[in-house]
């Protein structure tokens, strides 16, 4: 007998995607990282994206297997449940859809992360 799923698959449209983060609150951020060749993509979420980018660049966390140092897309959400739904939706997309979204938001594929100590800007 198969195990029941812990989370339902996201098929319904997301509720209001507008950024409605209360003043002083730290938003949840869904982000997309890639490497220099754009061969690998990492889609995840965090509250502190700069710290997560640092971990990806240095391969610090044991769950990070591939170096994906370039932050190419961020989306902010007020609550984590909406962020989780968006992250799952992006992970289910085909690669051409994801690339089209990145090119619509960041046409030059610039690194959107803050420079880390010791890096040139």
Molecular structure report:
It comes from Parvularcula mediterranea. This is GIY-YIG nuclease family protein. The protein has 121 residues and is an alpha+beta fold. It has a domain at 28-105: GIY-YIG endonuclease, CATH 3.40.1440.10. The protein has helices at residues 49-58, 80-92, 95-105; strands spanning 28-34, 41-46, 70-77. A 3-stranded antiparallel β-sheet has the order 2-1-3. A hairpin with a 6-residue loop joins β1 (28-34) and β2. The N and C termini lie far apart (54 Å). The mean pLDDT is 80.
Please give a quick description of this structure.
With 121 residues, the chain is α+β, with helices and mostly antiparallel strands. The chain has helices at residues 49-58, 80-92, 95-105; strands at 28-34, 41-46, 70-77.
Can you give keywords for this protein?
GIY-YIG endonuclease, alpha+beta, three-stranded antiparallel beta sheet, globular, about 120 residues
């Amino acid at each position: 007998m198969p195990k029941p799923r812990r989370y339902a698959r996201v098929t319904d449209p997301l509720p209001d995607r507008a950024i409605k983060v209360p003043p002083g609150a730290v938003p949840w951020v869904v982000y997309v990282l890639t490497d220099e060749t754009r061969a690998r993509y990492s889609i995840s979420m965090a509250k502190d994206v700069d710290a997560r980018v640092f971990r990806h660049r240095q391969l610090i966390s044991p769950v990070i297997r591939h170096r994906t140092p370039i932050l190419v897309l961020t989306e902010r959400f007020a609550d984590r449940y909406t962020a989780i739904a968006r992250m799952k939706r992006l992970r289910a997309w085909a690669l051409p859809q994801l690339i089209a979204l990145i090119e619509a938001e960041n046409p030059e594929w610039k690194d959107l992360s803050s420079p880390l100590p010791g890096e040139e800007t």
